[in-house]
Amino acid sequence: MSSTQQQFDVAVIGAGAAGMMCAAVAGQRGRRVVLIDHAAKLAEKIRISGGGRCNFTNVGAGPQNYLSQNPHFCRSALSRYTPQDFIALVKRHRIAFHEKHKGQLFCDDSSEDIIAMLKAECDAGNVAWRMPCAVEAIGKNGELFRIDTAAGEILASSVVIATGGLSIPKIGATDFAYRVARQFDLKLVATNPGLVPLTFDGRHWEPFAELAGLALPVAVETGQKKERGHFLEDLLFTHRGLSGPAILQISSYWKLSTPLTLNLVPELDVAETLIEGKGTLKKNLGNLLAQWLPGRLAEGWLKVNGVDAGARIADMPDKSLRRLGDSLNRWVILPSGSEGYRKAEVTLGGVDTRELSQQTMMATKAPGLHFIGEAVDVTGWLGGYNFQWAWASGVAAGLAV
Ligand code: FDA
Question: What are the residue boundaries of the RsdA/BaiN/AoA(So)-like insert domain, all occurrences included (predicted)?
Fold first, then answer.
C-alpha cells in the first residue's frame, strides 16, 4: 500500500440522505467506513427539502407509493426499516416534528436538524469523511475495490454508490451512479424528471397564463391500466403551465404525447347541476361558477370557452350548459414538456433493480458493489416517500456491507 493509499471495509460514495444513513449503520456495526462526497456543503438536498423543514417520512409509506419497473423490489427494505423506525430515531435526537397533511412528517424548526442527526449517527460509528473530494475512477485491485479520489487512493472490500439522481444539477447532482453501473455491465432503466411542473406550448397556454398564481383542489389522472396515476391534490397555475402537488404527483406517471384529465370541481357534476338548476338557480353564470371555483378562474374559464359571464342559465340551451359543465369536470390537456431536471424533485428510472438483491442492494453481477437511494429505479410519490426509501435502502446496505 502506498503512502497515499488507505484501506477501509466500506467506502460509501455520496453523503446525502441514503449515504449518511448507510455509513452510520455500517460504522455502528464496527465496520471501518469512509464517506466520500464531492460537494463543499453537506446534504444540500436535505437542507432545501420540504421548503427548508424536510418532509422526512410519511407514516403510511408502503410499496404502493413507489414507481419502478419492478414494483415489488422495494418491499423488503421498506418493511425492514419503517417510518416508525425513522420516527424513533428522530425522537431519540429530540427533534420536534409535526404531521402536516396525508401522513407527511416535517421538522418544526429546520431540515438542518435531520442533517445534524445523521452526522451525529455517522460520528457514533467513527465514519471517516473525505469531503469535498472528487472521485475520479473506480476499479478492482484483486478482491478489493480501488477508488481514485482527489485525496488519494482508497481500497475497500465493499463500495456503496449513493450519489442520487440527476435532479437539481446546480447543487451537485451527477450521473456518477449510472456510469459506475455501466462500467460493471449493469442494466439501467431510462431516466426522466419526476415530481416536476409541466409546461404547455406558449400559444396554447396564452389564455391561461393570466391565471398564474391561482390554486385549487382538483382530481387529476393520466395513463392506462397498471401505469395509471390518479391523485386528489392542489393544482397551481403558473406562467408556463401547471404545478402544485397534483401536477408534481401526476408528472411521474405522465408520458410525452399523453394527455392529462383534470376535474376542476371534483365534488360536483357541474353539467347536471346547471341543467337541473335552470328553474331555481337565479344567479348569472359568472356568479354561479364562482361558488365552486376561485372567482378569477370562473371568469377566465367562461372567457376561454366564449361564454358571457352575465348570461342566465335559464336562457341557455342544455347542450351549452353540458359542454361548459363537462369542460370543468373533464379538462383534457396535452402538456408539451416539463421544467426538466432543473426543477424536478426526483429522477425516475436509474439502476435496474433486477440487477440488485432486494435484501442487501448489492449487484449480483458485481459482488461487493451496492446501489442505494435515488440512484436506483425506485421513485416515491411526493410526501416524504423518497426520503423513506433513502433511509430504508441505506439501512439495508448498511447492515449487509
Ligand atoms: P442525495 O441527492 O440526497 O445525495 C447524493 C449525494 O451524492 C450528494 O451529496 C451529492 O453531492 C453526492 N454526489 C453526486 N455525485 C457525486 C460524485 N460524482 N462524486 C461524489 N459525490 C457525488 N423527498 C422527500 O421525501 N421529502 C421532501 O421533503 C423532499 N423535498 C425535496 C425538495 C427538493 C427541492 C428536491 C430537489 C428533492 C426533494 N426530495 C424530497 C427528494 C429527496 O431529496 C431525494 O429523493 C433524496 O435526497 C435522495 O437521497 P440520495 O441520498 O439518494 O441522494
Answer: 193-346
Q: Does residue 345 have its Cβ closer than 6 Å to ligand 1?
A: yes
Predicted confidence (pLDDT) at residue 149 exceeds the cutoff of 70: yes
Residue of 12, 66, 111, 163 to mutate, ligand 1, most atoms within 8 A of C-beta: 163
**Does 348 contact ligand 1 (Cβ within 6 A)?**
no
Ligand 1 mutation pick, 351, 386, 393, max ligand atoms within 8 A of CB: 386
Ligand 1: which residue has its CA nearest to atom 14? 163
Nearest CA residue ID for atom 24, ligand 1? 384
Three cell numbers written together for 307: 361564454
Decide whether any atom of ligand 1 lies within 6 Å of the 111 Cβ: no
235-293 pLDDT, tens digit each: 999 999 999 999 999 999 999 999 999 999 999 999 999 999 988 887 889 999 999 99
Beta bridge partners of 262: 220, 331
**Does this model's pTM top 0.80?**
yes
The three cell numbers locating residue 245: 402537488
d(C-alpha 217, C-alpha 375), whole Å: 32
ipTM for this model: 0.99
CA 313 to centroid of chain Cα atoms: 44
Are 159 and 36 contacting, i.e. CB atoms less than 8 angstroms apart?
no
Residue type, 327: S
The structural domains of the chain, ordered by start, are: 5-193+340-398 (3.50.50.60), 198-338 (2.40.30.10)
Is the per-residue pLDDT at 2 higher than 80?
A: no
C-alpha cell at 42: 453537506
CB contact at 8 A, 351 and 340: no
